[in-house]
Amino acid sequence: MKSHLEIILLSTILLINVQLSSSNERKFPKNFVFGSSSSAYQIEGGWNEDGRGLSIWDVYTHENPNRIADRSNGDIAADSYHKFDEDLKAIKELGLEYYRFSISWPRVMPFGNNSLINEKGIEYYNSIINKLLNANVTPMITMYHFDLPEELNKIEGFLNPSIIEYFKNYSDLLFDKFGDRVKHWVTFNEAFFVCRHGYGTAEFPPTISDSGISDYKCIDNLLKSHAVTYKLYKEKYFKKYDSNGKVGIALNARFFFSETNDTELVNRGLEFELGILAQPIFGQNGGYPEIVLKTIAENDKKEGLEFPRLKQFDSTWLNLIKGSADFLGFQYYSSRMILPISSELTGISFEKDANYNITGNPKWKPGITSQWYSVPEGLELILKWISKKYGDIEIMITENGWADKGELEDDSRVEFLRDHMESILNAIESGVRVTGYLPWSLIDNFEWNAGYTQKFGLYGVDFSDPNRKRTQKKSARYFKEVIKTRKLINQGSTKNISFTFILTVLIIILGIMATR
Ligand code: BGC
Predict the structure, then answer these.
(1) Which of 38, 51, 200, 253 lies 20 to 30 Å from 473, alpha-carbon distance?
(2) Predicted TM-score of the model (pTM)
(3) What value does the mean pLDDT take over residues 125-148?
(4) Which of 44, 156, 190, 273 is catalytic?
């Protein structure tokens, strides 16, 4: 009799457990894809091998080691130039459907132009593409991920309008060589970052400190380069390969929160950092956001400038740029609190035009530095903002990641990934068309000015080992499970399992006691 009671009790508890854990799991839509991202300079190494030319990052790190936290560089990095097979092993282990990597422009065009095409470079990327396809993984190529050929920097890089033609010739080469097999293209990685920090704040190469002038000029030339490349693909390659090929751009942004619910200020922040690049491409009428143009024009007037620092595109450019993307690659890491500026800035600068202050929030989970708070709700809100502004566009999350010191039992990264995937699911459920998630990054790599002091990989790389051994982290095991089940496995589910386990044991004890 007693044992019957126990059996009934146990089955009830089991049912409750199954119920509890399955009700916590949310499913990803059928066509949603999972992948991961990387970039050439951050992982390849082989900086002077097989005819590769120099990029601004080679020159910057070699000439200014003091600018990098650990005085390192990407000369060897994760040595993916020689070890792609190990990266592929990780890709397969994870079960990735997409792998996003970038082409090093100076590896295929050592001088940044058609005067010399480096066949060895083409061979390297051909082998990556073929190996991915053989493994049933869709390659997604970023054409530009911060590593401008030094030769083009000598003629002022993105400040020189001829960059439009140089970029077009470069993308023509890539489409021509790889377009028969590659159907997913990203022209530029984080255009705002390229222009603001390369040509405004001087935080990144080419370290031009000309905030409020050169950063806008860069944005203008970059958008034009993007649009010309899009047109080239549609006119020359789309039919040729009779494909469903897609060309997009990757834009990054943080969401802004206002303590006083100042939506105007939040909007202003988003327009200055995201709208300035997104609206010309994705906005229904195209062109730069009005608030941005208006403020800059007012400040031009105040400063007595006789030339506009940023002017609306003429109708030819406006129409060429408008609609020039099949998808938005969106990259999100963190958010900020936004506040009205405390004291008015003087002179000319982006900061003065933008006219807001930002801070962190002690309520947010802090990251390895104050730059990296985990704010998953910011992702959901910014996705909703984008979709409200630009309509039903396709969005792929082409980067999202968490920095730490390289722990293999990286629970914080597991939590970060889970929480951000939940935000994506929330956004999808409210109608935002997010079609993929490619977190940053497949493997640990050279983290720009932070060198090797910050790690983002799902796989660890031992940078003190000449073999650059890769090791699977806990986050990789977690992500693999999500991909396999296509469910948002609750980090909570580990918590829930232990919670329900304890509950189970307790009820059993009580049950046994009651039946005695
Ligand atoms: C970049 C990556 C970078 C990551 C973390 C993004 O801005 O695209 O290259 O490693 O953020 O900083």
Answers:
(1) 253
(2) 0.92
(3) 99
(4) 190
Other CB atoms within 10 Å distance of the CB of residue 49: 14
- pLDDT tens track for 222-265: 999 999 999 999 999 998 987 789 999 999 999 999 999 999 99
Structure token pair of residue 464: 């003190």
Tell me how far CA of residue 125 lies from CA of 35, 98, 105, 174, 190, in angstroms. Answer: 18, 16, 11, 10, 22
Report which of 26, 6, 22, 27 is spatially closest to residue 500, judged by C-alpha positions: 22
CA of 465: how far to CAs of 79, 122, 460, 469, in Å? Answer: 11, 28, 12, 7
pLDDT band at 7 (very low <50, low <70, confident <90, very high): low
How many CA atoms lie less than 13 Å away from 462 in the CB half-sphere? 9
Instruction: Give yes or no: 399 in active site.
Output: yes
Residue type, 113: N
Q: Which residues contact 357 (CB under 8 A, 6 or more apart)?
A: 338, 339, 340, 341, 342
Interval between CA 109 and ligand 1 midpoint (Å):
24
Query: How remote is the CA of residue 39 from the centroid of ligand 1, in Å?
Result: 9
Residues 6+ apart with CB under 8 A from 50: 118, 120, 121, 124
**CB neighbours (10 Å) of residue 363?**
8
Instruction: Compute the distance from residue 207 Cα to the ligand 1 centre, in Å.
Output: 17
Tell whether omega for the bond before 206 is within 30 degrees of 0, i.e. cis: yes
Residue pLDDT, tens place only, 17-36:
444 444 467 999 999 999 99
Which helix (H) or strand (E) segment is 143 a member of?
A: strand 138-144
* pLDDT band (50, 70, 90) for residue 8: low
Give percent above pLDDT 70 in the chain: 90
Helix (H, G, I), strand (E, B) or coil at 345: coil
The finding on whether 37 has its CB within 6 A of some atom of ligand 1 is: no
Residue 56 pLDDT greater than 60, yes or no: yes
